[in-house]
Amino acid sequence: MSATSPKDVRSQIAMVFHLDKCIGCHTCSIACKNIWTDRKGAEYMWWNNVETKPGTGYPGKWENQDIYRGGWEVTADGVRLKGAGKPKSLTNIFHSPHLPVIDDYYEPFTYKYLDLIESAAGDDQPTARPISMITGQPMDIKMGPNWDDDLSGSPDYARQDPNLERLSPGEREAMFQLERMAFFYLPRICNHCLNPACVASCPSGAIYKRGEDGIVLINQDVCRGWRMCVTACPYKKTYYNWSTGKSEKCILCYPRIESGQAPACMHSCVGRIRYLGVMLYDAAQIEAVASAPEAEVVQRQMDMLLDPFDPAVIAAAQANGVADSTIDAAQKSPVYKFVKQWHLALPLHPEFRTLPMLFYVPPLLPVMATVSQVDRGEQSRQINPVGKHWPDTWLYDTTTKELFGTIDDARFPLEYMARLFSAGDSAAIAGCLKKLMAVRLHRRRETVGDVAADTVATALADTGLTPQLAEAIYYLTSLAKFDDRFVIPAAHREQATELLEFTGDVRGATGFGFKAGSAKRGA
């Protein structure tokens, strides 16, 4: 039974991205681009993008809220928007000083391919010059949506990652040494937050959160292009269409979800890193959780997510209009397993206080040989081609007998990933990684047998796992079929019909449930 009786149980479509499995192929991004943003005015938009970490991301330095003023902050009066909201909107309604500009994203471009075909014969090889997709004029390419992909932009981009600020100079430099080069991919879409800053910031009331599944949408008929939502979203997942004068964002492919299909980015994912399912939560706790001390936000968010097997939760959900089919989907949800049962997935930048419903399994990173420090000798120092003296140099000892290292020896400092996924709580990251390592050791012993039984038993015991739980985690991580990864609740057309009849106009719906309606806009 629940420790406290839930007061306002609602359902939310939630997601998990398993970063250990992402190969950075960008298939998800292309699938989304081809369906939703292959239009005039949306050339620069990537509702789904895949960033390389460390890196500045897309748009550049989106995580630095000293620049963009996104998300919420705690004040004496509770939580308020950092850079948007009614008082700020009145003074900045015609100009927002915290908006990213096109150069923060990138100026979209194509190439003048006809030059390769129609150029006259000559001594030089013709080239296809880059052409701006906005102005149609030749341009010099300065960056793109994945400019620091695979650390290709390290000197100018990856080293500017805001999450590196709290690391020591030595730790930062070690992450970029060739011998310790390490990176991982971070796919991002709209988080469809429980406390969405974009919804709260919109002067027109065009952005709403659907009551049946929590998907955040922008009503294009109501949007007036004030762009407060772009400022307010700390993840910068709301975009302005310069052609239509409207804001746009990821809609989680809701037409596909309503027909029982997975969103395009998830369906096309080559690494099968993506999971989707229903979570039940107590909406009455949103304000208290969002205003909690930063160190408590993650745990408080986890606590407000409810057990779908709890009879009290089921009764409260039914009383609040949540369909039995949705409750059943919540009980089968892979997201519930990763987030609540196994405690393996964490939200991205929970300190923004939007209570995101996209969770990430932190990357354990590939197996690595033992690293030892050796001295190349005075002669090697003198013939350094760069003209500088070599210090002691890190080399791999590929003859090591120990295949798996420890969490403390990981190529990424725990503090770095803690800044991403746990508001600086390194212990939370360590807990996830130790469980992943325990599963890895368990499976290694099962398949290869070169890991001692007592090593596996100790790893499982230290993380509270059993062999059965380790197998369940392994199955859902590595062997899960389509229906295991995507548990999509049934759409209830009868509720949508009742809503239309009640409001007289779908645009009159608040999107926060079916308890109360509103009259037609303008009536």
Tell me about this structure:
This protein is an alpha+beta fold. Among the domains are: 270-365 and 409-485, Alpha-Beta Plaits (2-Layer Sandwich); 370-402, no CATH class. 32% of the residues lie in helices and 14% in strands. It contains 22 helices and 16 strands. It has helices at residues 27-36, 65-68, 86-92, 102-105, 114-118, 169-174, 197-201, 228-232, 254-258, 264-267, 286-290, 297-304, 311-319, 324-331, 334-341, 378-382, 414-421, 426-447, 453-463, 467-479, 482-485, 493-503; strands at 9-18, 49-53, 72-75, 78-81, 109-111, 130-132, 184-188, 207-209, 216-218, 238-241, 246-249, 274-282, 346-347, 358-361, 370-374, 393-397. The longest helix has 22 residues, at 426-447. The protein is globular, with a radius of gyration of 25 Å. The model is unreliable at 370-401 and 506-523 (pLDDT under 50).
List the SSEs and their pairings:
Elements: E1 9-18, H1 27-36, E2 49-53, H2 65-68, E3 72-75, E4 78-81, H3 86-92, H4 102-105, E5 109-111, H5 114-118, E6 130-132, H6 169-174, E7 184-188, H7 197-201, E8 207-209, E9 216-218, H8 228-232, E10 238-241, E11 246-249, H9 254-258, H10 264-267, E12 274-282, H11 286-290, H12 297-304, H13 311-319, H14 324-331, H15 334-341, E13 346-347, E14 358-361, E15 370-374, H16 378-382, E16 393-397, H17 414-421, H18 426-447, H19 453-463, H20 467-479, H21 482-485, H22 493-503
Parallel strand pairs: 1-14
Antiparallel strand pairs: 1-12, 2-7, 3-4, 5-6, 8-9, 10-11, 13-14, 15-16
